[in-house]
Amino acid sequence: MKLDYSYQQISLLLSSAESNSDAIIQTISFDSRKIINASSTLFVALTGVFKNGHSFINDAYNKGIRHFLVSKKGITSHLENAHEIVVPNTLEALEKLAKNHRERFSCPVVAITGSNGKTTVKEWLSELLSSTYNIAKSPKSYNSRLGIALSLLELSEQTEIGIIEAGVDEMILKKNLIQPTHGILTSFGSAHKELFTSQENHFNEKMSLFEDIDHFSYILTDEQNIQFYRFLKKGKRVNPSEFSTLLKGFPSKDQIGIQNASLAISMALELGVSEEKLASNIKNLSPLALRLESYEGVNGNVILNDTYNLDMDSLKHSLAYQQLNYSHMKRAVVIGLDNTDNEKIKEIEKVTSTFSPIELHIKTPETEVKSTFENTSVLIKGTRKAKMEVYASSLKKYNHQSFLEINLKSIRHNINYYKSLLQKDTKLLCMVKAGSYGSDAKTMGRFLENTGVDYLGVAYPNEGVELRSKGIKLPILVMNCEEQLFAECIAHKLEPAIYSMNQLDSFIRVLINHSTTSYPIHIKLETGMNRLGFPENEIPSLIAALKSQPEVHVRSIYSHLAESDVIDSEYTRRQINLFGLMTEKITTQLPYPVLKHILNTEGITNYNDAQMDMVRLGIGMYGVGENNSLRPAIGLHSSISQIKTVKKGTSIGYGRNFKAEKDTLIAIIPIGYADGLRRSLGNKNGGVYINNRYCPIVGNVCMDMIMVEVKGINCKEGDSVEIIGKNQSIKILAEKMDSITYEVLTSFSSRLHRIYTDQ
Questions:
Q1: pLDDT at 340
Q2: Rounded mean pLDDT of 92-102?
Q3: pLDDT confidence of 236, banded at 50, 70, 90?
Q4: What is the pLDDT of residue 188?
Q5: Which of 678, 675, 682 has the alpha carbon at shortest distance from 653?
Q6: Contact 433/463 with Cβ under 8 angstroms?
Q7: Confidence class for position 366, pLDDT limits 50, 70, 90
Q8: Cβ-contact 408, 447 below 8 angstroms
């Protein structure tokens, strides 16, 4: 981002105020953890769901920032040589700056929206155009109001075409910001439909982005057919058969991929790219999802695999992501170049140096990376021709073909959704017990801490110790702490739940031996779950102990609801009322404030009026539930190891329980009951999806593999297999397994490779 605005210009534009600073602003920052070139940066104090940017002004100042966009006058008055621009709303002011910046340029700007595929089409269009034009585009999947404003600020005098991705909400506002000259609607489906009153309203909202545009491409799909229209001018419909020859070079036969490629080709032709150049570039379009993924590597490393491209903007964003999320580790970046990319090395070195301390390694076909990484976050990027995917794979700790995919962007969306249901001061505790529902507690703990939640919750002390070993500093509630582990709790600053007088007495004795006072504890009350907790008749004894023992300090009082998933449950209301009576007896006898919480995930939605001081969010983070506002965040995938023909009457698998009724074709997939797929799914009780087609499991589920019927399905060895994903949710799989979603999530084997994406 190179704005080249004077601070005075920005001040006058946004607030008509005079400024005594003539500094040049080249960069916008809204996260004090990502500040690089502080002297030329304007820090924008945004107010978000979890965090208020005004709280981080001192941190930004200490990192060298001297120019601030704020909504509170005088908030920087105590900081020497600090300058502030005061506006009513900092996001709206940033949008005003972006709109003004957009209007400086007359180059074509392509706006892309749709239910699915926006980022893929944007990246592919950029690749098709970049050999002919200088491109500025939205980084990653920035498509919110903030993301669009930041994307528009990427436009410069050198930009020949801009490509901006737009989410579906607040479309008129986004249209006024982007002011597109060209448009692409990638798809119109059920995604985001919960935001609209009708399908027609949903479609019209998307289309409003493209009012007054002459150059527009879109696809409409349904189950029966696919229609593709390319508009050269309003009302003139052109069939895509004119570039069907070009599509032959596209390296995937997946129908969705072909649709997305068609849209990118259509717009590239419209913008003047020759068919000769397109033919050369189309074969390099990656059929893989465009994402930065992270996973556990050998030697205690964390691998950030971002190998799908190597433009400098993408490199900056990936380095910033690494710096933000892995500051507790050593950091390294490995860049793969082919023999024609030597001129990029100086530019790469310049970009990387701003994120020091970090090791930079350049890998070419003739050179290898000599360093052996240990306990390091390793970012891997490279050009397509460098084939860095192979190098990234060599650093994996696990190379099981089957893997669990955790979408952090979806989890962030779900957390924000639940947070939106809460009052401003209600705190949020996120449960990361049982390996954070199978997603790995260490990674989720770091992610949640950066997201800005207030508390983490675990079941046992060892889970909390593991979080602390990774540098996580959030307060951690331990729900089941045995007496022999009290000392470990204290050593790692874990906060135990106390649920009986015997346990309380034991913990106080340990605290006395440690000469510790005012240690934070949480009191668990029994209100109807009939598990752990103080019953009502023990409250007087509990109060007497708490008042007489300075060793403990009650941080919170809580209880569990037995049927929070039942709407308007009389039993639940009795539990909530009893909890209120019991907590009042305790808190009125204590000389300090105490947090109260009883709601879990379902309770937040169904009994919102009982949110009290804090709520506990668990499985809802992963988008599991009936709420259409949630986004599924967990996928389970594998690939086909072998395809073979099975003759009529031939048995399949252990026990010979299944025999083919006719000649058929089966695919063998390397995942089984040791990975979490129950044997009950065998013999056509369950199945998977291959190329969006359902394939029933035939024969018994084995420990390490399953066999599925694929006759009539276009597939080959190595093709991707969906076990949980867009076609088959966790809930559907759980029902087929005669289980519940909680059990399915926590049953995933540790040998399953975990991949974390943030796209």
A1: 66
A2: 92
A3: very low
A4: 66
A5: 682
A6: yes
A7: confident
A8: yes
- Picking from 404, 420, 507, the residue whose alpha carbon sits closest to that of residue 753 is 404
* Cα separation, 334 vs 631, whole angstroms: 33
Long-range contact pairs involving 687-696 (C-beta distance under 8 Å, separation at least 24): 688/638, 688/721, 688/722, 688/723, 688/728, 689/721, 689/722, 689/725, 689/727, 689/728, 690/640, 690/715, 690/719, 690/720, 690/721, 690/722, 691/254, 691/715, 691/719, 692/255, 692/727, 694/727, 695/667
The closest alpha carbon to 401, from 29, 122, 670, belongs to 670
Q: What is the pLDDT of residues 201-213, one digit of tens each?
A: 667 777 777 777 7
Look at 228-232, 500-504, 573-577, 663-667 and tell me which has the smallest mean pLDDT. Answer: 228-232
Decide if pLDDT at 5 tops 60.
Answer: yes
Report the first-to-last Cα separation within the chain, whole angstroms.
Answer: 21
CB-count burial class (<10 Å; 0-12, 13-18, 19+) for 742: middle
What domains sit in the chain, N to C, each tagged with a CATH number? 5-96 (3.40.1390.10), 105-282 (3.40.1190.10), 293-397 (3.90.190.20), 405-622 (3.20.20.10), 634-728 (2.40.37.10)
Which residues pair with residue 598 across a beta bridge? none
Q: What would the pLDDT profile of 634-682 be if each residue is shown by its tens digit?
A: 999 999 999 999 999 999 989 898 899 999 999 999 999 999 999 999 9
Work out the percent of the chain whose per-residue pLDDT is above 70: 90
Residues with catalytic function: 433, 654
**Torsion (CA) 199, 204, 205, 208 in degrees, nearest 10:** 170
Closest CA to 394 of 307, 297, 299, 306: 297
Q: Buried b vs exposed e over 260-284: b needs ≥16 C-beta within 10 Å?
A: bbbbbbbbbbbbebeeeebeebbee
- Picking from 175, 208, 203, the residue whose alpha carbon sits closest to that of residue 190 is 203
Q: Is 624 helix (H, G, I), strand (E, B) or coil?
A: coil
Per-position DSSP letters for 256-303, written without gaps between them: HHHHHHHHHHHHHHHTT--HHHHHHHHTT---S----EEEEBGGG-EE
